[in-house]
Each structure stands twice: as structure tokens, then as C-alpha cells.
Amino acid sequence: MFDTLTDRLGGIFDTLTGRGALSEKDVDAALREIRVALLEADVALPVVKSVTKQIRERAIGEDVIRAVAPGQQVVKIVHDALVDLLGGDGAPEGLYLEGEPPIAILMAGLQGSGKTTTAAKLAKRITEQHKKKVLLASLDTRRPAAMEQLQQLAIQIDVAFLPIVPGQKAVDIAKRAMSAGRLQGFDVVILDTAGRTSIDEEMMGEAKAIADIAHPHETLLVADALTGQDAVNTAAKFHERLPLTGLVLTRMDGDGRGGAALSMRHVTGLPIKFLGVSEKPDGLDAFDARRVAGRILG
Ligand code: GDP
Predict the structure, then answer these.
(1) Per-residue CA distances from 236 to 72, 117, 239 (Å)
(2) Burial of 258 (0-12, 13-18, 19+ CB in 10 A)
(3) 160 annotated ligand binder
(4) CA 148 to chain centre
(5) Residue 151 CB coordination number (10 Å)
(6) Which GO terms label this protein's molecular function in UniProt (predicted)?
(7) From the CA of 202, how far away is ligand 1's center (Å)?
(8) Is residue 252 a known part of a binding site?
(9) Whose CA is closest to 107, among 287, 278, 276?
(10) What's this model's pTM, rounded to 2 decimal places?
């Protein structure tokens, strides 16, 4: 186990006594430890650089009571800066579901990121918390197993599922889902797009064509928090091609420190809306910047 950042910073400030403002020298010594802690938490290097610069600006001149654990006070400064960088500690940005029904939510992401599981989790959440009638549809025409997986999940959580028509193209399924949504009085249609092992032109073209049909209110990128830097690169590439509205980070119940969250937010500027915290259908938490900041700091 690594020492916590508080312990490390405690060591640096142990020799200081009295009360005073943090000098550049104090802050720079602390920043070396902060930089290591962020890198160990899997925050990407360019993001670490930018974040530590902001922390430096905030910390210099800050008043600390040196007799009383100044290390902890500096950790608080860092913690607050991370919370701001993760989107602040207000209520998390929820889903935008207002407007003429049916409202489409498009799920995008690489294969294995947890996209299908998250589609089902969202369907359950919207049904229960927003009291809306939800239709789930799988557009993963290349992997019949993925379609069946979503169907099974829909049965498990008791949410409607658009019947599978073998051989139909993804854009045609999207059209069918939206028209079923309209005709059958659904409020929300969740479209689970095909996941691939890597981003390719065909995948992006297809996702774009689906978006043109469904005019989604939300286009959510699902990414695996444990893949760290890869998840960040994926998010950046998707966001170049598809107008994403938010991110969902899965496997936050794993033993990663969650630095990918900070990197993704920083690189894409998109809000992280939810965190996947288990394999179960209710394992989806609203994003909480404070909790994630605490975890990054260890
Ligand atoms: P997809 O290929 O992106 O659709 O990925 P799946 O939804 O099939 O998920 C892949 C695996 O990850 C499955 O075994 C899921 O149960 C699991 N999974 C998804 N989200 C989470 C999560 O938040 N935590 C954990 N522990 N497992 C998850």
C-alpha cells in the first residue's frame, strides 16, 4: 500500500512551526508528492501537469496553522481543487429528458466497457426514479449474443425490449425503435449501439447515422475506469465525431483509484453523469465529485 498523501505531506511540513502563509518553497515540496499521488491514481501526465499548476496557484499564500497538521490542510486545498475540476460539489448533472416523447438516449462505447449493462441500469433507474416508460433496443447487429444479453437484462428488470428482427441493419432498428416508441407511448427509448474492440470509421459512421435518425437528448459514452489512459483516448476520439452529452464510468467498484475520471473530464470537458459500481442492475450511482476526489487522493 502507498502512504496516503496526507501522511506524505505531513512529513514535509513536520519541520515547520508557527502560523503563516504557504511559501512557494513549501508548495513546491508538497507538489512533488501531489504529482506522484495523482500519477499513482492513474491521472494522465498532461492532466497532472495542468492540475498541479492550478493547485500551485491556489495554494501559494494560503494560510496554514503549522502546529496543526499543515499536511492535512494542504490535502484539503488539493481535494477542493480536484472537486472543482471534476465538476464541483453541487448536485450531479442529471439526464435531460424533457421534451416531446419519445426521447432517445444513445449509448456508445467500446466492446466490454459495460455499455449493455449500463443501458439496462439506466432503464431501471429512469423507470423507477423518473417514473417514465422506457423501451430498450439493441442495435448491435454484429453480435447476436449482445442483443440477447440486453433482452435478458430487460426481462430481469421488467423493462420493455424492442423485439429482435434478424438481419436488420442498425439504422433500420433505430427507425423501428423510435416509431415503436411513438406508437406505443414510450417516454424514453434507450438505443444500445454496437461496441467494437477499437474505434473505426464504420463504427463512427453508423453511430452518426443512428444519431441523425433518433435525435438523442443524451449521447452517453460508457468507458471502463480501470482502463485509465485508454478510456481517456477513447473518450476524446468519440467526442471528436459524435456530439456526446456525458460520460458514464464503469467498474468504479474495482481497485483502481479512479484517476481516469479526472482525466476524462479534463480532456473532453464533458460531465461525468454516472458511475457503474457493480454488475447488478442497480449498480449505478449518480456521479459524486467529492467521493471521486477522495478516492484519487487515497
Ligand atoms: P459491453 O460489451 O460494453 O456491452 O459490456 P457489458 O455490459 O457486457 O459488460 C461487460 C462485463 O462487465 C459484464 O460481465 C458486466 O457484468 C461487467 N460490468 C459492467 N459494468 C460493471 C461495473 O460497473 N462493475 C463491475 N464490477 N462489472 C461491470
Answers:
(1) 34, 22, 5
(2) buried
(3) no
(4) 26
(5) 16
(6) 7S RNA binding; GTP binding; GTPase activity
(7) 24
(8) yes
(9) 276
(10) 0.91
Judged by average pLDDT, the poorest of 176-180, 231-235, 274-278 is 231-235
Query: Ligand 1 centre and the CA of 254: distance in Å?
Result: 12
By most ligand atoms within 8 Å of CB, the mutation choice from 106, 107, 111, 117 for ligand 1 is 117
234 CA distance to ligand 1 middle (Å): 17
Q: What average pLDDT score do residues 88-92 get?
A: 78
Q: Is 192 among the annotated ligand-binding positions?
A: yes
CB of 282 within 8 A of CB of 121? yes
Q: How far apart are CA 138 and CA 126, in angstroms?
A: 17
- How many Cβ atoms are within 10 Å of 101's Cβ, its own excluded? 16
What pLDDT sits at residue 1? Answer: 44
Name residues contacting ligand 1 (CB within 6 A).
Answer: 109, 111-117, 149, 195, 250-251, 253, 276-279, 283
32 is in an annotated binding site: no
Q: Residue type for 226, please?
A: L
Three-state secondary-structure class, residue 234: helix
Query: Which amino acid would we find at residue 224?
Result: D
Q: Cα 52 vs. chain centroid, distance in angstroms?
A: 22
Strand pairing class (218-224; 103-108): parallel
Question: Which atom of ligand 1 is the closest one to the Cα of 275?
Answer: 23
